[in-house]
């Protein structure tokens, strides 16, 4: 007997369904489209502004060589004070007069500055000794030469080019004098070739004359030179020449120079001089000079020619001249000089910046005085020897990692230390110290930040190190490192908090002092001591630290430099120009904050670091141009901006330190300045290097902090006051450039939920009315009537969202920015490379991070500071670490969307394929990006270790000494912190939002045939009841360990009973595999809904003593979701080529430079 069950119409058609389902999509489309149009507008305008600023005029070393002769004029105009003001005006190009031979004083100024920069490169090991010889300009200037001595990287190969010109001219049948004139015209066509030929000739004469010892030798040499110069003056040199002789002469002379450089024996030197004279007399002079021939032949036959020649070239000047002559005769010595990518970038940026619009620098006594402030907490100061050589769990040390990331710089370091093998370093204390400094200069350390700032600059540098006093008391190595830095750098000051215990026993109290110290001799000397009313750190740590140090800064301007930043010497030379911007006309109000461009120096470490640097580069360049110069809504987004100190210190300072609301403390300085009629500008002719997070965990924590800070900004008074004081258009500009970006990121994610749940409810309504087929909401066909318009609106949402999803907000600005500065061909290839390295997955993951934490802050509040490490990511993150980091922000949301896509896959096979494909990409990103960009993420050995660690983490008991990293229960309890302060209204909203999972459960139950609907629905609840009983029994079992046999039997019979019941349902009701799959999905939906509701009802469940049952269900949920994510990883790890592919994906930039990254990934250290 069959029984038909008629269900109550839960989703009957409501009265205003059409209105409600039509308007949300329209609102969402407005928000998302506005963000897209703002991105396109800012990209185009920022690119045009960059072009008019002459950005990208010099993009590589080849273009630098072409314009190098104008560089002395640019140096002397913008880096050397002058009483002749340069005329101002707009021009599509900028040029400087080339320095001529009679302007040697101008060349001397340029030479000193240029050589200091090149020497700084060598001290940083960016170039080798040979490259330094090729890049420096001879100094002091040789007064005997009537030419400019250019760097050798411009001149090498020019001698051979001149010889090729000689050979080409000798083939002509013209008169000899015409040939001489022609060849000199060809040589003079290139200024570098002309200078190379003249300099080589003059220096060669000088060297050969110095080798002549006896009077007879000197007389022969004088006749020899006089004969050559006579032919040159009479334009008859080609009439008495054999072209091939020049090549032989150059070859012999280069061999002679090599002997002289190495201090060869005098008889060998004499032999080479005789061969050179013989080549010249027999080949160069067809009409031989009789006197020279007789003397040369007679002395040579007597065996007395050049016998007494010595190699006595003493002094640095002779050594440099021999080296310069030797390199002049190299044909391809300047190819790819400098080889180091960072050195090439810095040289080209320096030269390009000097062709931009800069204020002229004043003399030092007239420049604005300024200070630099750096907040320091507990970061690394200088790496110690045991730290750089200490191996992690994967067998990789920091030094080994840096050797593979920067192999050319490590080779240069060993050359500077004069060691050949790595083992030799550890036998010398000075070498160990130098290696520690070398590693520190490539990390985000205080040593890198401070040491670069005080080089050759006269100003005050204050490091606000609030923990320096505690470090000294505890004997921390960082205290001695800071003291060493103060001793080596007299301009460095350190401000810290000194805690002094006064009184005894019950009357003892702790007194706090703010202290400023400097280094004198080998000890610190106290300068100021100020008693404080109480402890300093009552708000956010970083702004409190800045407020500690700002009172000790001096001068009219203040530059804020962070721990992860670095100011190069060549950029520091432009500080006078930048400070002059305070005196320039920038509109109605004078500037109060000077924005400075940043360069991300960590971009080459890994693919993740590159993706992060792309985001940052777009923001600090193309976006800042538009905000500062077009929209006038640029604020302070962090260091290294320069503040008008007098303006800000009298208006609240540069940092807001209120806990929570000022989580993003930097931007409030910009808000404060703008609200008080300040003017914030942005300048791109000067840049400061900045280190960014290089691991996914670091990036996640940073973006979570910024997103939470943006959520707090949304609720701050400052944003309200700005909106109230701006006009409509400036208010929109402020919105899209601050909180609007994060709000629209949240809207992009909400659009997905609106689309999916609108389709879900639409399908349920469609089926409740007894319709068949597919409703318009799910159809891919265009709407045929106004009543079906909501379907088109929903598709429009996902169309716009898909453009945001594939990285439009990142890729379009990247294309424009790289195109302006490096060329659009390079920009196109970088975009393609980014796609091949799965950059879209990273940007999708980043979108989820921003949306989750912004929503979490708006809904719950209570944002907190998330500290991010600044070290090198050279180790594998365990599965449990990744799970607890991303479970709530990404994994749960990815599982929910996947569940919906499975539902539509069963319910509507013709569901929009484009939309579903984009959502599957989103799901893959949110579920597997942490493992895809995790070193050794697909190594089988690591997979096995991760599984054991995962199980241990799940079932660890709660003890006082356990942390979130070692116990699931501690972590899960910590995940409930935001619910402690939630109001009753908030709990009701959470419960209402959780009901959507019951709708999914109901929808899955309706996918089976009509006679099985109640069976599938009931079976999903039966599964939940079985889970509830099993978890309860297991919880009781852990408390009563003396009854193990009884509980084993009970568990056995329970599982047998469940299998029997399930078998009965399958056989009696004819459930297919599809029906079982649908039932499992319905059960998962119901389980998560109950967990969400239970978390909102925690106070009442605790009173009913049911909370422990909820905890057991949550443990099963995390086990289920973690296993689902882990299974594909384990399957892929079976195939070794997957791990190789992942390594190439993660370190493609390093592989493209030929680095041996596989050794780093595998943890195999081998000395090369």
UniProtKB/TrEMBL annotation:
Residues 151-329 form the Callose synthase helical domain. Keywords: Membrane, Transmembrane, Transmembrane helix. GO terms for biological process: (1->3)-beta-D-glucan biosynthetic process. Residues 337-427, 452-980 form the Glycosyl transferase domain. GO terms for cellular component: 1,3-beta-D-glucan synthase complex; plasma membrane. The chain crosses the membrane at residues 741-766, 794-815, 827-847, 891-908, 914-933, 988-1008, 1014-1033, 1045-1066, 1072-1091, 1112-1137. InterPro entries: CALS1_helical, Glyco_trans_48_dom. One of its GO terms (molecular function) is 1,3-beta-D-glucan synthase activity. The keyword Transmembrane helix applies. The keyword Membrane applies. This is 1,3-beta-glucan synthase.
